[in-house]
Write a sequence for this structure.
């Protein structure tokens, strides 16, 4: 009996264990168990408070939110209230998209914390949006903020064709259940905004009690009303609003707020077709049980409105009499003054942190403005996202854990979300502007690491991010890498520690940061070093190429970040990828530096030093990647040059036709071939350095008047479509991130006293820098944007725009940093 019972117990225990094992999330979906960097003391307290609110919704033309899992959100739309085109052509601006065809928009100033100014040109209207954060003695959590919205006719627009009024719809919504009921007051019409109107107040779990106000302001640029513009200020604005009831359960109206407004103004229009002059207005409604309030302010051009958000220490404060003074301090002339002060402070800080080498000429005005816009756009596009990645596992696609991400985004209009290797470049700039904000961002990224040491490449966290992603890009594969470029800014930190550059307090913060980061960096490094190792010792291979497809001319290598850059024609385990090997050299060097700077025991640092030595050993590098016939560094793999896409019949899909491949060097000279140079692995007196410089400077290969092209013009894949609908991307176009690395390397070799290539490197550095600066300035002033990439034949910007990611490195290039 006892025995039986014992046996039963055992069975039960086994069953429980199995059940536990099954219910436990697979490794892919579990966070690394190491202290969270985002919990470091330096990111709490005052800093957290100062960073609570921000323009952290980069996918919109203008949006504010709190850095909390469930945000208190604000957003802006604008439209012409006097034309039906607004509805018929859906000309209502909200999410930043290229289809809107704004002639330009972007942050021309943004300090990432308290101040930002954005200018936009939408057809015949110039719009500017200026955001200021403020802490007064009465301010509650997160402080107060104001945004000045200003619209005027664009220069040169024909008076007869001008629209005369513009509607701005500003909304506030709470993703969380509001803590106290909102009260939206009914207004008369047209409202007198001149002395300010209290629009709505409410309570949130994040900031406590708050209130929101609008004041019509005379913009200093507009001067006194002139010509037909004789309306007194008080009659120039009209206020309408809509309070949307809080729905039970989950609330996602913010995603479709534009659709909502369109349908409601359309309904209104249909209901009052007899009003004589046609107009698009929201119905005025009063409510106490809502969590979305939309406020439409219609101004005659030129016109300007200041929206003011107040955070209160106690609930009685909200909407009370003392608000008047607080609103006054953040609007009208007072706001004009605050803005002027912030502009000055911005320029001063920019000069401090982005100045050229000692004794250098100041930047020409055009380049200076471009550099400021580049940095501002990058920093002004830092977003806060919260949610989980969709991850491929053996048990199907599953969500990972919910987590926040504070990150810059490469493109507000096309892919407003975080990308791993882009971020390493972004942080080189953020690091200069605000080292702490940069650590904060890197902390968020490293906290996304799973038990295996993997960080997903593309971060699609939360509904707002997901809405902008085509389905095929959503799922992240935990066997796929992306270059560990975050080691670039992290290596800078280690360097700063070693050299003891900077204030004691700053050095202490860096030290605390990197020592807390160490276990995560080790896990990350180890994941790369094992999962992406190649067959041959010290060789590496990007995983994730499709070895079975017949539809691609050369199966893509998305993991590398260089997407369609041609690799071995036949993907397989024999491949050796040169760029990854060089990234690992950088990572090993950074790990060795960090370990040393932290004073870790020798045996913990030694493996990194040894790997770095092996990866920078010229003999081993050459044995794996040097093609002595072509005198080039190349990938290795199963390859044939005889490949083309062919249709059997007119309507059949284009299929790949190839001659049998053989194991060999892959003869596509381009960015990949430069990596030993880019990572500064070549000895200054090596013939390989000389040959690489010659190829780089050869106009048949990479050299153009607009920078280095990604793939040699002589390559069989130069400017080739990968599929009939997949245009060339890294097959000739000029990319700024790699050009930046090239300049960094050329400067390094130009400084190697006595090396035989010193002068050549110095000359190439100066010419390449001038080419890139000149072309980007021409493109920026002519077309209003920085672009994702540039054409190697005519210099035109191409790909997504505005591109606020690594193209912003132009600022570092300008000041030779
Ligand atoms: C497109 C289309 C509405 C591709 O900058 C981010 C990445 C880089 O990391 C990578 O190196 N870009 C580069 O080759 C852009 C990737 C965008 C993919 C999603 C969605 C939106 O459609």
């Amino acid at each position: 009996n006892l025995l039986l019972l014992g046996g039963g117990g055992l069975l039960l225990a086994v069953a429980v264990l199995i059940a536990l094992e099954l219910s436990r999330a697979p490794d892919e979906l579990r966070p690394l168990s190491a202290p969270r960097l985002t919990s470091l003391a330096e990111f709490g307290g005052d800093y957290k408070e100062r960073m609570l609110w921000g323009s952290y919704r980069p996918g919109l033309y203008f949006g504010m939110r709190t850095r909390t899992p469930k945000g208190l959100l604000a957003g802006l739309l604008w439209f012409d209230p006097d034309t039906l085109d607004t509805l018929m052509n859906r000309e209502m601006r909200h999410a930043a998209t290229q289809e809107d065809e704004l002639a330009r928009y972007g942050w021309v100033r943004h300090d990432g914390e308290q101040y930002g100014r954005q200018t936009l040109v939408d057809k015949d209207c110039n719009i500017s949006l200026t955001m200021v954060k403020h802490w007064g003695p009465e301010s509650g959590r997160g402080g107060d903020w104001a945004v000045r919205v200003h619209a005027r006719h664009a220069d040169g627009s024909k008076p007869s064709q001008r629209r005369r009024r513009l509607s701005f719809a500003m909304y506030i919504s709470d993703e969380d259940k509001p803590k106290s009921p909102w009260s939206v007051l009914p207004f008369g019409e047209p409202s007198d905004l001149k002395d300010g109107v209290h629009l709505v107040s409410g309570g949130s779990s994040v900031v406590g009690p708050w209130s929101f106000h609008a004041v019509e302001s005379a913009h200093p640029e507009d001067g006194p009303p002139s010509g037909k513009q004789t309306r007194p200020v008080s009659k120039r604005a009209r206020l309408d609003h809509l309070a949307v009831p809080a729905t039970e359960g989950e609330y996602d109206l913010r995603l479709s707020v534009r659709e909502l407004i369109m349908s409601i103004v359309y309904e209104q229009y249909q209901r009052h077709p007899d009003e004589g002059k046609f107009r698009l207005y929201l119905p005025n409604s009063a409510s106490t049980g809502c969590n979305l309030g939309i406020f439409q302010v219609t101004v005659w051009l030129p016109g300007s409105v200041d929206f003011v958000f107040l955070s209160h220490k106690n609930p009685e404060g909200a909407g009370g009499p003392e608000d008047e003074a607080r609103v006054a301090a953040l609007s009208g002339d007072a706001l004009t003054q605050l803005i002027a002060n912030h502009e000055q402070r911005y320029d001063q800080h920019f000069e401090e942190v982005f100045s050229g080498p000692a004794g250098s000429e100041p930047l020409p005005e055009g380049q200076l403005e471009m550099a400021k816009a580049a940095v501002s756009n990058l920093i002004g596009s830092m977003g806060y996202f919260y949610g989980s990645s969709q991850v491929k596992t053996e048990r199907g696609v599953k969500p990972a854990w919910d987590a926040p991400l504070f990150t810059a985004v490469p493109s507000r209009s096309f892919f407003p979300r975080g990308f791993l290797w882009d971020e390493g470049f972004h942080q080189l700039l953020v690091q200069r502007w605000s080292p702490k904000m940069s650590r904060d961002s890197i902390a968020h990224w490293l906290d996304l690491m799973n038990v295996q040491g993997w960080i997903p490449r593309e971060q699609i966290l939360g509904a707002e991010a997901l809405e902008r992603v085509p389905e095929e890009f959503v799922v992240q594969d935990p066997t796929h890498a992306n270059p560990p470029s975050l080691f670039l800014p992290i290596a800078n930190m280690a360097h700063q520690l070693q050299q003891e550059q900077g204030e004691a307090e700053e050095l202490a913060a860096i030290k605390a940061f990197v020592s807390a980061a160490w276990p995560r960096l080790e896990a990350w490094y180890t994941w790369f070093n094992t999962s992406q190792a190649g067959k041959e010792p010290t060789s590496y291979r990007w995983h994730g190429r499709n070895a079975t497809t017949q539809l691609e001319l050369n199966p893509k290598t998305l993991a590398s970040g260089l997407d369609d850059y041609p690799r071995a024609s036949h993907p397989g385990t024999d491949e050796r990828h040169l760029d990854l090997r060089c990234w690992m050299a950088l990572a090993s060097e950074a790990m060795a530096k960090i370990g040393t700077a932290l004073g870790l025991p020798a045996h913990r640092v030694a493996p990194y030093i040894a790997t770095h030595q092996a990866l920078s050993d010229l003999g081993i590098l050459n044995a794996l990647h040097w093609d002595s016939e072509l005198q080039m560094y190349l990938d290795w793999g199963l390859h044939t040059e005889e490949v083309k896409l062919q249709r059997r019949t007119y309507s059949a899909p284009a299929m790949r036709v190839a001659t049998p491949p053989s194991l060999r060097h892959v003869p596509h000279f381009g960015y990949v071939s430069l990596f030993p140079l880019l990572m500064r692995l070549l000895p200054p007196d090596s013939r390989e350095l000389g040959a690489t410089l010659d190829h780089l400077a050869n106009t048949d290969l990479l050299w153009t008047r607009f920078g280095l092209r990604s793939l040699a013009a002589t390559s069989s894949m130069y400017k080739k479509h990968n599929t009939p609908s997949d245009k060339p991307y890294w097959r000739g176009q000029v990319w700024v991130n790699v050009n930046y690395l090239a300049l960094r390397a050329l400067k390094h070799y130009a400084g190697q006293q006595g090396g035989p290539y010193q002068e050549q490197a110095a000359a190439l550095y100066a010419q390449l820098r001038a080419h890139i600066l000149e072309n980007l300035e021409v493109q920026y002033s002519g077309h209003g944007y920085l672009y994702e990439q540039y054409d190697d034949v005519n210099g035109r910007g191409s790909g997504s725009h505005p591109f606020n990611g690594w193209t912003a490195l132009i600022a570092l290039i300008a000041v030779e940093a």
Notes: The pocket of N-9'-methoxynonyl-1-deoxynojirimycin is lined by residues 410, 414-415, 419, 421-422, 470, 473, 561, 563, 805 (CB under 6 Å).
